[in-house]
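Write out this protein's structure.
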Amino acid sequence: MTIDTLKVLLRKGWQLESHSYAHQNLSALPLAEALYDVRQAEEWLKEKLRIKAQHFCYPYGTYTEELRLAIRQQYLTAVCTRKGFDKLPGAYARQMVLRETSVEQFQKMLFPPTLSVCMIVKNEEKFLELCLRSVQGLADEIIIVDTGSTDRTKEIALQFTSTVYDFTWCDDFAVARNESLKYATGDWILVLDADEELAPADHQFIGEALQEWSIAGYHIMTRNYSNDTSISGWKPVQDAYSRGFQGFFPSLKVRLFQRQPGVMFQGAIHELIEEKALLQYGKIVSLPMVVHHYGAQNLKSGRMGLTQHKIEAEPENAQAYFELGVQQKNLGQYGEAEVSFLRSLELEVSAVRLLNLAIVQQKQGKVSEAVQAYQRALESNKAMAEAYFGLGFCFYQQKELEKAAGFFEQAISYNPQYVDAYVNLGAVREQQGHSRTAAEYVRKALQLAPRHSRAYYNMGVIMEKNFNLPKAIACYEKAIEYNYAKREELQERVIRLKRVLEN
């Protein structure tokens, strides 16, 4: 616009405010330079238009806390690019009306969106309070459907919400989830389990996501915390939310979505929001935040009966056979799991199904069959680190150490945080007589997972073979502390080594 155009707008009653002088990213400048740019804009407005700006808009929407406090001293309000209705002094959120914004969307933008948190629970007194506290200040309402608790679950729930409903369990998780949706009145729905939490810092992501009316739903990644480093996709982590767990395995699903007719859960066991119905109302995108899940280590074997019912109802459902196989594998029923995986693969081939088939075949000592299944999995997905690891373990069992080492190295190349691959590679190099290299691999495993019992055991073996008995004993005791599988045998070994030192 020209200066004359701006003067016309002023005469017509428009208000003109400051957006800085040079449109620099003020948060990247020293405070003095940033404020100099702001003063230049003020002087320009005063000289050219004879006005004093009362409001400020941060270039690129970014600011530092120092800058925000300084801007508060000079302007009545200041806005950033955060979407919504939040009014942080000196950094108001705002709504963006674009050319493609529909009238319906514009009408929704005039009022703050509301959020319903919907949950189903049963005997969750251990986790529930922390979960509900994590959504305080975010949720406009919390809907809890209790499927038959006999502990303090309902008592705890009623401390946070009056909308607690009883539901007679019917062996169908989707039906129970949809019961909770039935009571929701919010514009949006967030689905959580009692053993899950949100970080306070992630409230902002959800708050902004609720403003996006062109988006129907959001995939959110779940951190399923576990100390089982052998789980597919397991990653080490040490932060405030790991709470003693060494790592997690991720999963992704729609958790946040608009409350719309026909949008509901499907699946008696692994219940999920039906995305096809959701896509009628807009896009589905991912939200850059996580849900923290602490109950993943609890084996939910009770779902096996539901899976078997699902197979009876849908005998050609490949996914149902796969789910049954996973449940059987988790319970150590490897022969039954192999049958389920084979049936699943007859109906539909996938790399993940081949990987699980190989694992249960390997567990049964069917090494040649397992090798074939791992190789088939890699034909479908050349970057599958777990398949390389499995091949390495098979050749390790067959005493082909160099082949085993090569596959463990490939697993690490595709997943540099593959703890068990470092542990096993260390074991191979130790058996080949390369103690120093073996110790380096085991140390890397312990950097990633500082309480890995087998890594401590392997380091103990390396130290013992190099006649460093005090260090070996210390490593063995750490392995015992962290529940090494053959704990009693190892305790006896420690006693014997201590006797050797005493003599």
